[in-house]
């Protein structure tokens, strides 16, 4: 996600080479509707919850790598269904 997102005053935003890095924490992803939520610091350093729909910036290429506006990630192996 580091290459896909940035923290913009406490809000997760799509950005090529956004360098999200260690700015936000306590991130969770829900299966439906595929939303990631993180606690991100705003300009005065106070954490606030922010979320973004993953399908607005992520895709999987034909080799199973995650792709976003910022580049390509590692190979993603599908987990077996239980």
UniProtKB/TrEMBL annotation:
This protein is called Uncharacterized protein
The lineage's top-level taxon is Eukaryota
Q: Which Gene3D superfamilies match?
A: Cyanovirin-N
Q: What InterPro entries does this protein map onto?
A: Cyanovirin-N_sf
């Amino acid at each position: 996600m580091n290459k896909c997102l940035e923290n913009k005053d406490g809000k997760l935003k799509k950005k090529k080479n956004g360098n999200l890095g260690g700015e936000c924490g306590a991130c969770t992803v829900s299966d439906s509707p595929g939303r990631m939520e993180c606690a991100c610091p705003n300009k005065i350093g106070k954490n606030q919850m922010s979320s973004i729909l993953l399908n607005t910036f992520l895709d999987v290429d034909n080799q199973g790598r995650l792709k976003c506006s910022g580049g390509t990630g590692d190979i993603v192996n599908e987990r077996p269904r239980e």
